[in-house]
């Protein structure tokens, strides 16, 4: 079995286990992660706009 497929299978099994044992914790982690990702993406695009504006 390919290493990528094995890793993907482990992640899916872990997320499935987490969903059944602590669904509220998984939801909070997903919400926090999405919020953090949005903030980082916004900062990146602002920095790129500033960088190209300075050029």
Structure summarized in a few sentences:
The chain is mainly alpha-helical. It has helices at 3-21, 23-54. The chain contains 2 helices and no strands.
Q: How many strands appear in the DSSP assignment?
A: 0
Largest sheet: none
Low-confidence stretches: none
**Given the C-alpha coordinates, what overall shape results?**
elongated
Gap between N and C termini, in Å? 49 Å
Backbone structural class: mainly alpha
Number of domains: 1
Task: Count up the helices.
Answer: 2
Mean model confidence by pLDDT: 94
Q: Would you write up a description of this structure?
A:
This protein has one domain (3-54). The chain is built from two helices and no strands. Helix 1 crosses helix 2 (23-54). It has helices spanning 3-21, 23-54. It is elongated and about 50 Å long.
Which key phrases capture this entry?
55 residues; 93% helix; mainly alpha; 0% strand
Topology:
Blueprint: H1 3-21, H2 23-54
């Amino acid at each position: 079995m390919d290493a990528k497929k094995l890793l993907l299978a482990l992640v899916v099994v872990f997320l499935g286990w987490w969903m059944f044992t602590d669904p509220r914790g998984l939801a909070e982690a997903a919400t926090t992660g999405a919020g953090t990702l949005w903030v980082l993406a916004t900062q990146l695009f602002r920095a790129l706009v500033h960088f190209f504006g300075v050029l």
